[in-house]
Design brief:
This protein is an alpha/beta fold. The protein is built from 13 helices and seven strands.
Amino acid sequence: MTRNSAPSIRSVPLTLPSKPATGAGRSMGTILVDAGRLSPPDAERILHFQRDRGLRFGDSGKALGLLSDDDVRFALSVQFDYPYLANETKLSRELVAAYQPGSQPVEQLRALRSQLMLRWFDTGAERRGLAIVSAGAKEGRSYIAANLAIVFSQLGERTLLVDADMRTPRQHQLFNLGATAGLSDMLAGRAGPEAVISIPALQDLSVLPAGVIPPNPQELLGRQEFSKLLQSLGEDFDVIIIDTPPASECADAHTVAVRAGAALVVARQNVSSVPQMTRFTHSLREFGVALVGSVLNDA
């Protein structure tokens, strides 16, 4: 799913939620009973079966038909302090990094995360923001931005996902946030830090949705308030991933990339135009944006 190219190369305080207690030291049975996924009598049945057969608790529960693979993955995610979404949550299934953490596409996202840490986020205290951009439409920017933010949060990095696509935003849909205040409202002075929403099921991840679609997104992003906001957010978050509109439809992506300082370029197999991408990346370099990598989305 991903292909990486060689690199070209804290105002508004927020109150972040504290981490919930981890599952270290808690048994799988205790975690599942506490979560309402297993009854105490059934946990006892599994324990007796486990002792008699010498199996792991999870394998014993599945053998008895009392636990599913999803139950076991959930308990392991708690024990190892690794955020994981159960199938019944209301968040979009496009968030594969949370629903399918062991899948090959997510392994590729982790590899991309490692390269981004080395090329950008670990190279200076002021380097917090990264714009996810593409030359054309329907190339997977929102999908990559959301899942990349999740894998950074799973690393323990305080991660903020900002939806700067104030034309056709998607992050509020992916994270089931509803119609809430967001970036546009903050830039217009109509909302404060409360517009940043923590995602309870995914600790260390917060989302700043696009908010009300304004009549002047380019002007809002071009104001100094946007730069000041990113600088302020950088005092509270280790990683800020910013979703953007397609560059072919407006100049917003260029503006966001310049404010962030760096960009990750997304292309889609059999969709993206190579000449269009070449012109776009050349223009980003002319604006002084660090191109820290590219992603070929074959989904």
